[in-house]
Amino acid sequence: MADLFVKLQPGASADRIEGWETDPEGRPVLKVRVRARPVDGAANAALVRLLALALGVARSSVTLERGGQSRLKRLSIAGLDDVETKRRLDAPDAAGD
Predict the structure, then answer these.
(1) Beta strands in the chain (DSSP E)
(2) Cβ atoms 30, 7 nearer than 8 A
(3) Could you give the CA distance from residue 14 to residue 27 in angstroms, rounded to a whole number?
(4) Cβ neighbours around 66 below 10 Å, total
(5) What's the chain's Rg over C-alpha atoms?
(6) CB atoms within 10 A of CB 32
(7) What tens-digit pLDDT sequence spans the chain (97 residues)?
(8) Half-sphere exposure of residue 45, counting CA atoms within 13 Å on the CB side?
(9) Residue 20 pairs with which residues in a beta bridge?
(10) How many CB atoms lie within 10 A of CB 45?
């Protein structure tokens, strides 16, 4: 199971994966934008859908572990390890839109 840290920006013009940055603790964080607003969990649901699609896994494999009300989130990806998750997210067709 992979752990993935995400910095989410809701209310964007398009759903897309922006790329990687490093947080103050030195962890790699994936920057993601979604069109959905942070109302009634819509932005979190859009994040899960986008990541499942980009990773080629079922939505049920992507679980929001922490940060439901925060921009910085921790998700777990069942069935993939950290290396495979990063490889799939770095693939050219993983950016969404």
Answers:
(1) 2-9, 16-22, 28-33, 62-66, 72-77
(2) yes
(3) 26
(4) 12
(5) 12
(6) 25
(7) 999 999 999 999 999 999 999 988 898 999 999 999 999 999 999 999 999 999 999 999 999 999 999 999 999 999 999 999 999 999 776 655 5
(8) 7
(9) 30
(10) 14
Using alpha carbons, select from 84, 76, 97 the residue that is nearest to residue 32: 97
Question: What is the DSSP track for 7-61?
Answer: EEE-S-SS-EEEEEEE-TTS-EEEEEE-SS-SSTTHHHHHHHHHHHHHHTS-GGG
Residue with tokens 């994040």: 47
Residue whose pair of structure tokens reads 């910095």 in the numeric block: 7
pLDDT at residue number 12 = 96
pLDDT, one tens digit per residue, over 45-61 is 999 999 999 999 999 99
Residues in the chain: 97
